[in-house]
Amino acid sequence: MQRWQRLVATVLALTFALTLSANDNRVYRLKLASSWGSTVPVLGDAPSELKELVETMSKGRLQLRIDDPSKHKAGLAVMDLVKLGQYDIGYTASYYYKGKDAKLSFFTTMPFGLLPQEQHAWFEFGGGKEFAEQVYGKEGLMHFQGGNTGMQMGGWFKREIASLDDLKGLKFRIPGMGGEVMSKLGVMVTSTPIGELYLALEMGTIDAVEWISPAFDINMGFQKVAKYYYTGWQEPASETQYLVSKKTYASLPQDLQVILETAINQVASRVMTKAMHLNVTAWEKIKSEHPDVKVASFPDDVLRALDAANMEILNAEAAKDPLFKEILESQQAFLKRARPWTMMGEYSYINNTSK
Fold it and tell me: So what's the pLDDT on residue 240?
């Protein structure tokens, strides 16, 4: 059969299947658990936007019930809620579950790793999607990218970091892989509860705090008490995820499967653009109201030490888990290929036109 004939046959088969699905007038009600409450900038809005879109596109045949952490009480265990069948969909971030499986971090972000566009390209065309199917498939889950909030800042510091010695004994609230890396350089990593962060920073119980970026940081008030805002290295691309029960997905008519995936892609795109807009707006406000805040970058020797410590952690994990090693090598190889173009394109444009 000629290539065009196969294509026509595929389109006709899909059209027939969708027609049959469209004649199914049953209403399918799914439950979604989110890791973030509705008051969280950007991420808090995404589930309700998804609900509106799928219900409109399906003319009410697919309906979502949204529960945030105030309801399900498990913001950092949403993946488990879906695995156990308590929810059909989870909106979360994969690296929250690195303690269960270190490979999950690859699908959110890695220290010194891919930027958002690079991350998306690796996922869609560089093997990432296939790795996600392996990692999540054994858990009975399907993985869909949920939107990237972009580069995260390196944290708010009460004093300048001029050398590696300045890190020793520093009390720093920084979670995840970033915290593991920092602890190798003598940092005292803390797990101060979110609601206590501002007071702890103000009173000196901690010396620094890493949160997210201006859009998220501004309402925390850190700019009032910490005047050094360091640029990031630990989370260069912060991708969220929709984790869908494979059993639930298989139970949906084909047209509703398409609607759900299309709606997820649309909302995910809005997450990135909305995060960009709010970061711009929030940073303008911070600069205006707190002109004494200084944007700083870690010295080269500190960054080199952080990079070396990060690779030590990654190599140790790769020695224990062959699939972790395979995914790590895939991302590193893609980064080596993609970064020259990133430097030629966006970086050169900014560097050459911002003088």
Answer: 98
